[in-house]
UniProtKB/TrEMBL annotation:
The keyword Cytoplasm applies. It is found in: Cytoplasm. It catalyses: carbamoyl phosphate + L-ornithine = L-citrulline + phosphate + H(+). PROSITE patterns: CARBAMOYLTRANSFERASE (PS00097). Belongs to the aspartate/ornithine carbamoyltransferase superfamily. OTCase family. Keywords: Cytoplasm, Transferase. NCBIfam families: orni_carb_tr, PRK00779.1. This is Ornithine carbamoyltransferase. The lineage of its organism: Bacteria, Pseudomonadati, Pseudomonadota, Alphaproteobacteria, Rhodobacterales. Pfam families: OTCace (PF00185), OTCace_N (PF02729). GO terms for cellular component: cytoplasm. It comes from Jannaschia seosinensis. GO terms for biological process: citrulline biosynthetic process; L-arginine biosynthetic process via ornithine. Carbamoyl phosphate binds at residues 56-59, 83, 107, 134-137, 266-267, 294. Pathway: Amino-acid biosynthesis; L-arginine biosynthesis; L-arginine from L-ornithine and carbamoyl phosphate: step 1/3. The gene is argF.
Length: 308
């Protein structure tokens, strides 16, 4: 059975095949009304459960639409409204849902929850974000970069700000897709040392650069994300803002980047905090292509999981 739990747990050849399929499906339905089915219906007769223990707009709607376009059915479940949120174990939830549905996507807190779900489910499980990873996002990001600039291998991604879940999945992707990575943020919010070490040992040039302008100076892609993630304590907000303010992606910072450097943000953006309107809405930003590609990339992930 194929779970899609993380970038580094998926064979790089399979990641590539997933992106090729995503591109093919995107091209095949270009210009078509969004609610119409694809020509092929590989998910006909299949049901997918989408479980959210945290809020979501993109993940929720893109998975739901994607599965429907491929002929499948979906049910969106909020963790709080399930017995899961009232003491039923993850393991029992996994066993029960596996009797009803063909695939489970879960957005949750700790990685341990995701892994427990996968261990006890007898259907594929997809990671829709945890406190430590967001692999579906990164698949869309790599797809988007390559649409605009060609192969990402050998390029450099500069991450500005918090070494959070999305940053950590980018580090995994640097190994799988062969790009280099610069992290620029406060030392208190570095990505885990073990992850940096593993990426370096796998041959990635990973730089930790405290000076934001130097960090973007040779970047092909500049990426940022919220300063306070859904898994972070609300009480840490002020401290995080104070630490992260110097790493805001604004026009001044982007003047230090190469002219053709792209800008990404997984969204939702906090305009005026981690990124300014001028950059987010500016010519180098590809954030809405990135959001669209969640749909295409995840359709291919679902097909890969189900082998259809
Ligand atoms: N980027 C992303 O995962 O967005 P949502 O939180 O809206 O799903
Ligand atoms: N780092 C953010 C990503 C949101 C899609 C969070 O976890 O809240």
């Amino acid at each position: 059975m194929r779970h899609f739990l993380d970038i580094h747990r998926t064979d790089p050849g399979d990641l590539r095949a997933i992106l090729e399929n995503a591109n093919a499906m995107k091209t095949a339905r270009a210009g078509r009304p969004k609610g119409t089915p694809d020509d092929d219906l590989p998910l006909a007769g299949r049901m997918v459960a989408l479980i959210f223990e945290k809020p979501s707009t993109r993940t929720r709607v893109s998975f739901d639409m994607g599965v429907r376009q491929m002929g499948g059915g979906t049910m969106v479940l909020s963790g709080a409204e399930m017995q899961l949120g009232h003491g039923e174990t993850i393991a029992d939830t996994a066993r029960v849902l596996s009797r009803y549905v063909d695939l489970i996507m879960i957005r949750t807190f700790g990685e341990d929850i995701l892994h427990e779900m996968a261990e006890h489910a007898s259907v594929p499980v997809i990671n829709g974000l945890t406190d430590n990873s967001h692999p579906c996002q990164i698949m869309a990001d790599v797809m988007t970069f390559e649409e605009h600039r060609g192969p990402i291998a050998g390029k450099r991604v500069a991450w500005m700000g918090d070494g959070n879940n999305v940053a950590q999945s980018f580090l995994h992707a640097a190994v799988s897709f062969g790009f280099d990575f610069t992290f620029s943020g406060p030392v208190q919010l570095d990505p885990p040392e073990a992850l940096v070490k593993a990426a370096r040992e796998a041959g990635c040039d990973v730089r930790i650069e405290r000076d934001p302008e130097r960090a973007v100076s040779d970047a092909d892609l500049v990426v940022t994300d919220t300063w306070v993630s859904m898994g972070d304590a609300e009480s840490s907000r002020q401290r995080r803002h104070n630490l992260l303010r110097p790493f805001q992606v604004n026009e001044r910072l982007m003047r230090a980047a190469p002219d053709d450097a792209l800008v990404m943000h997984c969204l939702p953006a906090h305009r005026g905090e981690e990124i300014t309107d001028a950059v987010l809405d500016g010519p180098r930003s590809v954030v809405f292509d990135e959001a669209e590609n969640r749909l295409h990339a995840q359709k291919a992930v679902v097909r890969w999981c189900l082998g259809v």
